[in-house]
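Usage example:
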Amino acid sequence: MKPFLLPLAIFVALVGFLAVGLTLNPREVPSPLVGKPAPAFTLPQLHDQDKTFSPADMTGKVWLLNFWASWCGGCKDEHPVLMRMAKAGEVPIYGMDYKDQRDEAQTWLRRHGNPYPLTAVDEAGRVGINYGVYGVPETYVIDKQGVIRYKQIGPLDDDVVAKKILPLVKELRNK
Amino acid sequence: MRWLALIVLLMPGLAWAEEAKPLAEDPVVEARLKHLAVELRCLVCQNQTLADSNAPLAEDLRREVREMIAKNMSDQEIIDFLVQRYGDFVLYRPPWKASTTLLWIGPFFLLGVGAAALVVALRRRAQKLVDTPVTDEERRRVEQLLSQGARRS
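Running the assembly step on the lines above writes:
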């Protein structure tokens, strides 16, 4: 065996590990909730405090639950994508205003547009904890039986919507 | 003017305040929280424990853990609660599973490889060192050279 072969092999292996390791996103923590029923909650609505929203209301429909907040920068980046999705009307997106001030959230929606048929308010962030949210925005795809089928950590973009969300929604709807 | 001076003098008295009180005051609960929180990872600042982190989510999770402690839940129940929501990632000591085998065994495996390589390298070096006996002719020459050196100095 030639003397340089062993160091070369070690080097190549190391580069291989780094090539994979450095492209992984440490923020993408796999959610143990995918494939499990969406945690139940009953929360007041953003625009009508006296009315409530619960995932049970959505049984029989495929829908998205989008955690957002007016203080969240990533939500602003994501917002145009949600607005386009709402306009196309392919899948209903329900909002969850996470740890936010009610008036600021309403102002934010007035300014940037409201893609949600309805937004619930999770003021204390408890429902967020039940959904394993650790940074807004996060989006869940929930099927007709109320089971979480996909979780997007961080902002949605057109690519994810076209390649992952919409095909999944179509598939779940035909089930 | 005198009144104004008096008011100004009294001002520091108004600034008297107590130090911020901790959120939970039960020392038993706090002790258990501390014990648990060093084992749990903050999801936001991933290299900090739940005990160290000041992220809002860490605060919320500490509140949640405090409440569970107050409800007399066992450590295992509390850990299960968090793992159900955030996965094994919240644990600084992930459980032994198929997917974590490499994580647990990897360092020991590398240590073994290193030790084996060291043994092999040392043996090879030992083989290279061959005793070559010195002949009488060489011994005489050495003595001659040394005596020359001694004279020179």
